[in-house]
Amino acid sequence: MPAHSGRRDVRVITFALVVANVAGLTFLAVVARWLTPTENARFLALWGLIFGLSAVVGAGEQDAARATTAAGLRGEPVPAEVVQLVAVYAAGMGLVLGVLALVSPSSFGGRAAGTFVALAVLGMSVQVPLRGALLGLGHTLSYAWAIGLEALLRLGLVWLLTMTARPTVATATAGVAIGSMVWATILPLVVPRMRRRSGRRPWRQVVGAVGTLAGGNALQACLLTGFPAVVAALAPQAAAGAAMASLFGAITLSRLPLVALAPIQALTVPHVTRLAVEGRVRQLRTYLVRAAALAAGAAATLAAAAYWLGPMLLRVLMGPGYELDAWILALLMGSSAFLAAALLQVAACIALQRYRWVLLTWALAVAGTLLVLLVGPASLPVRAATALAIGSAIAYVVSAASVGRGARVARVGTHEVASDVGAETTTIANAANAKEIVPTSQTDPGVERPVHHHE
After folding, report:
1. Residue of 215, 32, 62 whose CA lies nearest to 134
2. What's the pTM value of the predicted model, to 2 decimals?
């Protein structure tokens, strides 16, 4: 990937994410003023359920990007594996929703709201892998359009409903469901490039990969969005204090750099897949070294800034009652840099099909975090900050080891990429002698054309 093209793709995806986040916040603000406080609390619980389950599907985007990129480099159409991923994720989410409906039917807030929740979750199960296929095809603009369109559709519908319908939790949830159906606009870009049964994997391997990555994503959430909930579950009385409120506020602020990382993370899988398929092992190792250097530099910079400016920024942004020691703020911001590097390296693991290492990375990181939280000698705020830092460091070290091992497995010539699922190896033959991918425009680089080589 040329450097200028990579920078353009990052800018495009960044813009789409900014639009989506602004539209999402506006949507929540409109709903909060439309519903009563009690109804809004019920809606926010459903919102959390929808996007909590959607986060589990997130790895499907990266896996679909990996499969589509590899197929394109072999001169093959979009693989049927993308459809298999959609089917397995949709079936898995349907099973989860069914069990939840049986165990806790009140979680859905009524039949109408529950129906829209199911439509939203199943829609995301289809949308996310298809977005990954767009990344694998190099359709960055279409990928960014899908991200932005989902949030704008959601906002537009709820705005219309505020003027024409009676405000209810169900109608607000309908807006979320409509937004998730943006996959219908992706189908015309992906389906024509498919061939029946081309690139199909054994179902056992697909189910194994999905289960492993979904488990890894669930564990990853314990260190990202769900860490305050983990602390509150382990120590509910202590977590309700003012000191923990300050810590949770600081943790929320320390996650802001990870939002800026999202565009790079989205493009990591196609990039690493190309390096592995083309046998550029040296560049793959260079990626590791650069990631380590950037993580160390970013950790030092963020920690220093947080130490000197963090206490003041925390009071300005969260309120005068929020106080936290400078060294704790420095620890949180520094650990965020290593967590960011771990997220990029986990994406590289998915590109190399090292799925079990993804699960191992987050399992060991969560285990280390819980160990410090449970047996650490200090106060709960200190234990929580230290546990988060240790968990981030473990995630970074384990994921780096996995990518380093994957770089040694990728071999020039046959270009073999190790697959942990099913203990099989995917052999990717070099298709350059027959075909190459010829960009027809800057926005549609995925058209295949025969290339005639002359002596």
Report:
1. 62
2. 0.78
